[in-house]
Specification:
The protein is mostly helical. The chain folds into three domains: 56 residues, no CATH class; 60 residues, no CATH class; 127 residues, Orthogonal Bundle (Lysozyme), CATH 1.10.530.10. It has twelve helices and three strands, in the order H-H-H-H-H-H-H-H-E-E-E-H-H-H-H. The N terminus is likely disordered.
């Protein structure tokens, strides 16, 4: 997890707040927007910068879209029409997924701009170095420099996950939003935690196992944790490598092909991959018809 110098960070935020007062003509409010970041997304190098560069760094790291208004999990079990239920489920989750992907696309754009500067043998600014090292912290990259190797490792992790793949996994893992883990803890992706009391103890937990099914305060936190998990956890190295290969070969990546990297998401392995891959086709159709 990101290590913090809390006192310095608070001071830095106070300085940037003062800058916002001094420069009221600036439309962006990165200070306010930074409040929507999770703890691990907050910049770790902010206090090393002057006030102007602090604003630039926060503007790069924040979400381009605001947090969707809070909505409790609908009672999807009340739907008698299967297609309407699926559309309602997708409509509920899609804004959160789009928000995460929008931020990842924004971060990736800035990384690629820095990569071009390096390839042109141009010096990076202090703010650009701070941006790269903040992302190293956020995306759990240790012992790397802001050089070609470090940028390439970032590009492996800082990338979008197709909405159709995310929605399909959510449908499978949450029983179309009707599981008790989704209803009681906003957990749509079957995510585990390993601290006593961090979640709900699954009724079928095997002897000797200590995991719980994580509880989240709201849907945005659940979706955020899912993206963070796939983009940082070592178990999904293969998924990230496959995503990079598909992007390089095809200029994009086919969600059905990308699902092949999810073998370690479930104990079902290849059977899980096959289920997700086949369902993605139906998910696409529902999204297109909506």
């Amino acid at each position: 997890m990101i290590r913090w110098l809390k006192g310095g960070l608070k001071l830095a935020f106070a300085l940037v707040m003062a800058a916002a007062i001094i420069y009221p003509f600036m439309q962006e409010n990165p200070i306010q927007e930074a409040k929507e970041l999770e703890v691990w997304q907050e910049p770790s190098k902010l206090s090393a910068l002057d006030k102007a560069d602090q604003r630039k760094l926060l503007a790069k790291l924040t979400y381009p879209d605001h947090m969707p208004a809070f909505k409790p999990v609908p009672d999807f079990s009340k739907f008698t029409d299967g297609l309407k239920k699926k559309k309602a489920f997708f409509d509920y989750l899609e804004p959160y997924i789009e928000r995460e992907n929008a931020r990842l696309a924004k971060l990736r754009k800035h990384i690629l701009e820095i990569q071009l500067k390096q390839q042109a043998k141009q010096n990076l600014t202090m703010e650009e170095y701070a941006f790269i090292y903040s992302l190293f912290d956020e995306f759990k990259i240790d012992m790397m420099d802001a050089d070609e190797a470090g940028i390439n490792e970032l590009l492996l992790r800082v990338d979008v996950i197709p909405a159709s793949l995310v929605l399909t996994q959510a449908a499978v893992e949450s029983g179309w939003g009707s599981s008790r883990f989704a209803v009681e803890g906003y957990n749509f992706f079957g995510q585990w935690c390993f601290k006593v009391g961090c979640g709900t103890v699954p009724s079928k937990r095997r002897p000797g196992k200590y995991h719980e099914v994580a509880k989240f305060p709201h849907t945005a936190a659940s979706v955020n944790a899912y993206f963070y998990n796939l983009n940082t956890f070592y178990m999904y190295d293969d998924l990230r490598i496959l995503r990079a290969e598909l992007r390089k070969k095809e200029g994009d990546f086919n969600p059905e092909k990308l699902a092949a990297g999810l073998g370690r998401y479930s104990e079902r392995g290849q059977h899980y991959i096959d289920e997700i891959s086949s369902m993605i086709v139906a998910t696409h159709k529902i999204l297109e018809d909506s």
